[in-house]
Amino acid sequence: MEKGVISDNGSPRPEANEMSKNMKRFLLVSNCVILGIGNCFAPLTNRLYSVKGGKRIWLMCALETAGFPFLLIPMIISYLYRRRKGGPGTKVISMSGVLVLPCIVIGVLTGADDYMDSAGVSRLPVSTYSLVLASQLGFTAFFAWVLVKQKFTFLHINAILLLTAGAVVLAFHSGSDIPDGESKGDYVLGFVMTLGAAVLYGFVLPIIEFMYQKANQAITYSLVMEIQFLMAVAATAFCVVGMLINKDFQAMGREADDFELGNAMYWLVLIADAFLWQLFFLGAIGVIFCHSSLLSGVLIAALLPVSEILAVFFFDESFTVEKAMSLFLACWGSISYFVEEYNQEKKKKLAAESEGQKQKQKCVV
Fold it and tell me: In this predicted model, what pLDDT tens digit does every residue of 72-110 receive, in sequence order?
């Protein structure tokens, strides 16, 4: 029988074996770093594609998950490691058939989210796009409460409200940083599409955690990579259909020739974009595996200051009063969340030490 472990929201999650605290901490930190790199730089490559002449929305959409072949490298390494420990009979694919359909459905939802995300970032300055996307945390928290019974404290709720408010501030001044040559209608459409992407991905993160809980098999990091691979394949297939209908494949050659940075840089930007987005998605579901969907959502919102600085630096975007207020609220909310996480971890440690002392006293008696 598989051993059950308790996830950070208090619900059971099956695992093949009890992972050591040091290994789980290493995986959590590694996935936080992977998520951070993808979250900070992927929107920049998307925007670079757009401002230098790229106009194919479905192509941008597909690139957000088309980097799944990069996952084959860690998946092969993981299989060789498992084979060395388990022998020649070790299965290449550990995923059970029960998980295939849920992964495909979530993948299609991710593809739809990618389309709205790409349509948004192509019409908005990266700084504005990033701050609007911060509202995703509020939706993540709501769906985590509904689907996986996530527990909240006052500081958790305070963090969610602050991070969400940071995005809402922009809605009242949505026309103050319209890029040159872009109509107000396109800007508003970009704002609405980005907000829609925030809602949908706010649902996707908890539903992945819900799938982990309901999976009738042990959840290992190897399985997490397989899940991400299948979801990315489904999402890319969804986007490729859009590319075929929109005739993007025929247009890519012409677009590369007209790209302001040159033909070679066009293809390099596309490859870099696919790779960075794959880091983002792998990091996001890895954090869910190691901790919770709520932490994944908080990290995405908490990394806004880095995105803000990079966007202003690379694209010479304006940094308005509204953005400064949003940035302040985002930082405040992030600090509030991590302070509460520290307090909760400290309480758990003290409780464990107290229980250990009681057990020692019983042994002495």
Answer: 998 998 889 888 887 888 888 888 888 999 999 999 999
Phi and psi at residue 222, to the nearest 5°: -60, -45
What pTM value is reported for the model? 0.78
Whole-number Å distance between alpha carbons of 108 and 126: 25
Tokens 């020692």 identify what position? 360
* pLDDT tens digits along 11-28: 445 444 456 677 888 888
- pLDDT at residue 190 above 80? yes
For residue 152, give both structure tokens: 């909240």
Cβ atoms < 10 Å from Cβ of 343:
12
